[in-house]
Specification:
Layout lengths: L14 H9 L5 H4 L4 H5 L6 H13 L10
């Protein structure tokens, strides 16, 4: 199975992180790669801890957030 097609609920995210992702309509790991760090910071209910958890989970699954563009 492609790691990027994993549902966020199948990963080891904290309940708070899962709630924030759900509020922002993020269901799959791959959907997170479409956002930059700045995008993530502007999500409803997003905290530094949750951003850290998301970045770590992406790294653990050999992927990352979208690069910032100027």
């Amino acid at each position: 199975m492609n790691k990027r097609s994993l549902k966020v609920t199948d990963l080891d995210f904290s309940p708070g992180c899962l709630k924030t992702l759900k509020v922002n309509n993020i269901e799959y790991l791959d959907e997170l790669t479409q956002y930059s760090l700045l995008d993530l910071a502007n999500f409803k209910g997003m905290s530094r801890k949750i951003i850290y958890d998301v970045i770590k989970m992406l790294k653990d699954n050999d992927t990352s957030l979208k690069e910032e563009t100027l």
